[in-house]
Amino acid sequence: MKLTSLWLAAALMWLPLKTFQLPPADAPGRPGVKATWTSGGKLGVGTAVSRRSRVWFTLGATSLTEVYYPTVDMPNIRALDFIIAGNGYVGCESRDATERRAVRARDDALAFVQTTSDGRRWRIEKRYACDPLRDALLIEVSVTALDGKQYDVFALLDPAIANSGLGDTGDRIGQTLVATDRDATTNQTIALAFAAQPPFSVVSNGFAGVSDGWTDLAADGRLDYRERRAVDGNVVQIGQLAAPKTTLALAFADQPAAAAEMAEAALADGFTAVAQRYEAEWQAFTARLPKVAPEFRAQFAVAAMTLLAHEDKTYPGAGVASLSIPWGEAADADHPTSGGYHLVWARDLYHVATAWLAIGDREAAGRALDYLFNVQQRSDGSFPQNSWLDGRPYWPSVQMDEVAYPLILAWQLERFDLRAYAQHVRPAAEYILQHGPFTPQERWEEEEGYSPATIAAEIAGLACAADIARRLGRVEDAERFERAADRWAEGVQQWCYTTTGPWDAGEAERGYYLRINDNRDPNDGFKLDINNGGGRHDERAIVDAGFLELVRLGIVPPDDPKIVRSLRIVDRVIRVETPLGPGWRRYNHDGYGERADGSGWQDKGFGRIWPLLTGERGEYAVARGEDAAPYARAMLAFAGPTGMIPEQVWDQTYPPDARYRIGQGTGSATPLAWSMAQFIRLTMCLEAKRVVERPQVVFERYAGKLRARQSK
């Protein structure tokens, strides 16, 4: 027996390594600490133009954050970090970088360069490119030792497969790390492969906060848990870079082996070749964009590319609101239920579609409408507050402007066929007739009642539906839609314009539009409970600029005295002057935003400046024949060095130790597709010297007639 055993041992010594490997030991500490997502403030987003590649990436303050696959609502990675160890030092890039810089590598592609440094020991530079031929992302990493010493550098990956940081299993195939979990909706496996060229010299898996690579290295500067496997928990993976310049690959498939092969194939092509393919696709896209003023040209291209990057490739036309999770560092990632902003709102998608129309891309706008009609719309004609890509509602309410906007878009796209009318246009219009003008939620998704912004959309939607009906010989329908729209056009000033509110513009005649009214009496002083921690206030004291939708959609002329008077109140109450240009909060007492010290919103905070409102004010200036360029310049400045226009930017010069500076994007959601779309529309309004998305049929029925009567 002893001789046989010795013979077997000797024979095994000659077997190739890959044919005989001891199974890896399991990492201790399952399941690890609670999983969260990352800040909603992204410095870059990207994907290949090709629909063959179904990977989307996002960039945080120092490096890669959420990566989505196979759809734009399915994050699978929380973050990529780097650990630097040696000479008695252990540092973490995301924690210890004192210098952080992110810039566009070029203006005609979603190509970014991120550089970080601790200022003394190390500098890391990273470039990114999705492979148009594969479900893979390549990252070129260059590490420089500033002090001339030798350091070990480790890539630390935090998977969150299938929209959940909990329940992942991490393993390895050779020196390629793999992670898997199941999609809770389809029960299909999603597999991730994390590989390097040259290959990682050491790889391992652990559980976050207990046995992960950073926790291990931080203890003594050595990676003690090597070649480990981590099963069913909050997994973190680590690989040691074998060279100062390394290409990393993240690839996806339905099985680990297939994902590993995908990563290997992308690495074999090399970063330079993949980046050239990636950038060439975007260059071809931007070459087709219309020419705009030179000062806005680069941002215009970035905005258009970003809108396309938010569109899904399995569900064409489905554009999510943002590739982000607002204040995600505090958002639960243990369960696959977080939608963040990677959901579809009909309102946001309408604004994106009108941006495509302004550019002249009717095909892209048509994809959006097809998605709204064929996937999102319910059998009763309504649309959900928001939804996953497959149309499953996420939040349960209905917002009446979201039922109306697709009707306006259908008219703009000349969907004058009987099938579209019978199956989509008429059911939505009937729903508006039955339930409007009251809305369960207005455009800020917080209050029920009579909202000037929502009623404007309802009026315009019914007028557009009426015109489509009349073209198809459905005269009775057309007349019913028009009668309701006419009544509401007269009623909106009675229901939403207070003459007894506390704000006074210093004029003989008092009055202004409310944000929202709970009933049809705007002077009754109803106590409005602001449903985001903003407190309880007299509804007459709460103002916003949503009434400008009455002008944008062609219902009221821009010089209407009530509009002008209300704007004076708005500028007095919620306008903020910044070094970058004017900005506006959504409304006074808004609680949806960072807290006073800049920490993230958690049920209560302070609403900050919304750049899209600067764009809306610019469109109003265009409608009045005024110079709107200053508003476009302000939006451009709010976008920062990478061109990502936020949902919100910081609105204070104090406290001095706050984590943001005035005019800087916050942790809410950057980029916001609606903000990008608003910049595109405003830029095209400047070129055309008119409000480009205003439906002419609405203007001719309402604002045009009012202006004609006033001129007489």
Care to describe what's here?
With 712 residues, the protein is an alpha+beta fold. The protein folds into two domains: 32-284, Distorted Sandwich (Beta-galactosidase, Chain A, domain 5); 288-328 and 341-711, Glycosyltransferase (Alpha/alpha barrel), CATH 1.50.10.10. Helices cover 34% and strands 19% of the residues. Strands 6-7-8-9-17-13-12-11-15 form a nine-stranded antiparallel beta sheet. Strands 1, 2, 3, 4, 5, 10, 14 and 16 form an eight-stranded antiparallel beta sheet that branches. A hairpin with a 4-residue loop joins β7 (112-117) and β8 (122-130). The chain is globular and about 85 Å long.
Topology overview:
Blueprint: H1 2-13, E1 44-47, E2 56-59, E3 64-68, E4 75-86, E5 89-92, H2 93-96, E6 99-104, E7 112-117, E8 122-130, E9 136-145, E10 152-159, E11 168-173, E12 176-182, E13 189-197, E14 203-207, H3 213-220, E15 230-233, E16 235-240, E17 245-253, H4 256-269, H5 271-286, H6 294-309, H7 346-359, H8 362-376, H9 400-412, H10 418-435, H11 452-471, H12 475-496, E18 497-498, E19 512-513, E20 527-530, E21 535-538, H13 549-552, H14 561-573, E22 575-578, E23 581-584, H15 611-623, H16 629-638, H17 673-688, H18 696-701, H19 703-711
Antiparallel strand pairs: 1-2, 2-3, 3-4, 4-5, 4-10, 6-7, 7-8, 8-9, 9-17, 10-16, 11-12, 11-15, 12-13, 13-17, 14-16, 18-19, 20-21, 22-23
Helix pairs in contact: 6-17, 7-8, 7-9, 7-17, 9-10, 9-11, 10-11, 11-12, 15-16, 15-17, 16-17
